[in-house]
Amino acid sequence: MSSKIVLGWREVAALPVLGIAAVRAKIDTGARSSALHVDAQWRYVDGGQPWVGFRLSPGVVGADVIEAAAPVFDERYVTDSGGHRTSRVFVQTVLSLAGTQREIEINLSDRRGMRFPMLLGRTAVTHLFTVDPSRSFLHGRARRRVSRT
C-alpha cells in the first residue's frame, strides 16, 4: 500500500513564503522543472546577492496582483514543450499542497495564454505525491479569475 498523497492533474497550490495564498497549478510529470507565470520580472542586488522581483496574477477569483521577491537560486536553460530553449531564473521556495509543505525550485516564465499560471514538474512531486490523471482538484478548488469588461 502506498503512503503517497494522490493529486489530480490540476490542483490549487500555495507559495506562502512568496505571499501567494492560492494559485491554479497543472501537475505535469512529463516536465522536469516547475514554472510560475510572471507578468514582469526585474533583477537587483541586495546584500551583495542577486535577487529577482516579480509580479503575477495567480488566476484565482478575488486574488489581487501579487508582487514578490526572492534570492536568485540559479539560472539555467529550459526547453519548453514546443522545443524552444530559453534561459530562466530559478528561485527556491516552499510549496504548500494537500496539507504538506516542501521546498521546491521554480523557474519564472511567461505562461501567458496558458490555462494554469503554475506548472508543477516531477521534481516537485517526486517521493511524496502520485498523480491520478483522471481526477482534478482533489485538495480544494479555486475558481478561475474572471475578466471584467
From TrEMBL:
It holds the Pfam family Zn_protease. InterPro entries: Asp_endopeptidase, Peptidase_aspartic_dom_sf. Residues 6-140 form the Retropepsin-like aspartic endopeptidase domain. Coiled coil: none annotated. This is Retropepsin-like aspartic endopeptidase domain-containing protein.
